[in-house]
Amino acid sequence: MRSVDVIRTKRDGGELSPAQIDSFVRGATTGEGWAPYQLSALLMATLLRGMSPAETAHLTRAMADSGTVLDLSDVPGPKVDKHSTGGVGDKTSLVLGPLAAACGVVVPMMSGRGLGHSGGTLDKLEAIPGFRVGLSESEFRSALRRVGLGMIGQTADVAPADKTLYAMRDVTATVESVPLITASILSKKIAEGISGLVMDVKCGHGAFMKSLADARHLAASLTRVGTANGLRVASLITAMDAPLGRLVGNSLEVIEAAETLKGNGPADLTDLSVLLAARMVQLAGLAADEAEATQKVRTALFSGAGLEVFRRCIEFQGGDPRTLDDYTRLPTAPRSMQVVAHRSGYVSEMVAGAVGVASMVLGGGRERAEDGVDHAVGIVCLAKPGDQVRAAEAIYDVRYRSTARLMAALPLLEESFTIADEPPPRAPLVIEEIA
Ligand code: URA
Predict the structure, then answer these.
(1) Which of the listed residues 43, 158, 166 should we mutate to test ligand 1's pocket, taking the one with most ligand atoms within 8 A of CB?
(2) Closest residue (by CA) to atom 2 of ligand 1?
(3) Domains of the chain, CATH where assigned
(4) pTM of the entire structure?
(5) What is the pLDDT of residues 247-258, one digit of tens each?
(6) What is the rounded distance in angstroms from the CA atom of residue 271 to the CA atom of residue 161?
(7) Which residue has the least CA distance to atom 3 on ligand 1?
């Protein structure tokens, strides 16, 4: 089979056969028969012409099979994970992983690092002194057996075809293709050896999917293609206009996750974490209906069972569990500065993307994949949309290390919120659910 013929088929709007897709994925994994410019030509043809559900499902499976697919059948219990398309202040994984595990779900969570304005679960976990996200496969299996939860990074042998293709998409303006995003996300999730997946598709200013139409398209594709590959999938579209919770930045987000597991979390973070964990419990078959699943998760939250799982997870993965009781053990920024309201009124808008970029500029996130992160810095949102504020009252408390970085972040924060005479209408956190 000649790669040029595969490219021509897609360029002309045709449907690729399973053998043609296998050839492309083999080319991305080993280089065999496909030069990098040919891989990128097919990516562009796919972005422009799209793929049918059957093509996307086959691409997903082939990309998963390009590397190791964990077989967790020797670990007792239903395996379910959650994946978010990325947001600002989104620390739900740190809350719902322990909650779902406390309800009997086995959670083999493989996460990524943050890039651009959105944070990554691994960076947050690494704010905890000693926490190892690079467990060996046998350590990961023991974490799942003993704690019910393992939180690690994707190893080099998980979906290697995606590593090549994702890097190529980034530099060829082909990231924004629903079939390619679907295959990229699901191939890595299938490799975890799970039977169920809850997808949190973020929608709004601070999200990858800015419009509801795009978010719906992606959520429907993820559900359909996941199901075609044997997963039970629930996809929720949730709002990402303002940051989730009040704390943005790695150490700060660990603190907010811990407070949420202690029952003291902000309402949006608590509600979303409970809802997503309840869906995990349902997909795991551990509750007859939504009401029973929600009740189980609420009990895990208010009894402290979820916090206890998080403590055991931190301990198992080499971290210092005392951080959950004493937040001064986490990296702490040496300086802080407040951004204040320029007038009295109600905070009517807070642009999550701008807060996320400001946190990245402070050093809390990375602009390029190879950059390091400063776990200590971040932003405390002292007011959120709907809150009443007086002129000169603080909106943000910025935790920083470098004055130069602060100076670059301040204009973004000053422009990121709007104050109006009336409170904004209450926006729902969950916009839609596609089961
Ligand atoms: N996240 C992924 O893992 N892949 C994409 O293509 C987009 C978001």
Answers:
(1) 166
(2) 185
(3) 3-50 (no CATH), 80-324 (3.40.1030.10), 332-420 (3.90.1170.30)
(4) 0.95
(5) 999 999 999 999
(6) 36
(7) 185
